[in-house]
Amino acid sequence: MALLLGDKNTFAAEVGDPDGPDLRRVDLWVAGQWLTCDDNTVYVPQFRLSVAGTLDGLNDSEHHALSWGPTTDNVQSYLYRNGDNTAITAQFWREDHLRAHPEHAGVVFTAEIPTDELIDILERLVTALQ
Fold it and tell me: Most Cβ neighbours (<10 Å): which of 38, 47, 64, 120?
């Protein structure tokens, strides 16, 4: 049974059942866009470390890439702290995706979420992957 964390219209992660000893389905959304449309099977040890690194990075005010391995390498995505909120951007770049979804060409999808809420989602994501 899948566990949905967050809101797909801003930021969400949906964790599915294990798919082997170290593999799991994780779907990610930003601004209503399904980011993991090319690859939603994560290698849990690496993915957890990547998410934990993002959590650590939310403590400073600089921007960080949302770079969580193969599941997110089909998009350029950044997190920007803005006061008590964090803006998340995502832009699809693979030619296959843009051919299938020409309306995504050149579009940067953006959502803003309270930083405390984002931290809560990411902490619950790390916990769900234990």
Answer: 47
Tell me the C-alpha to C-alpha distance, in Å, between residue 27 and each of 8, 39, 81, 89, 119.
10, 9, 23, 16, 17
Contact (Cβ atoms closer than 8 angstroms) between residue 33 and residue 90: yes
Q: Supply the DSSP symbol for 32.
A: T
State which amino acid sits at residue 61.
S
What is the CA 103 to chain-centroid distance, rounded? 21
Q: In the block, which residue shows the tokens 């994780």?
A: 26
For residue range 46-78, list pLDDT tens digits in order.
999 999 999 988 876 668 888 899 999 999 999
Report the predicted TM-score, pTM, of the whole model to 2 decimal places.
0.93
- Cα-flanking dihedrals φ and ψ of residue 33, to 5°? -105, 130
The whole-angstrom separation of Cα 26 and Cα 4 is 10
Partners of 24 in beta bridges: 18, 42
Is residue 105 a contact partner of residue 98, using CB atoms and an 8 Å limit?
yes
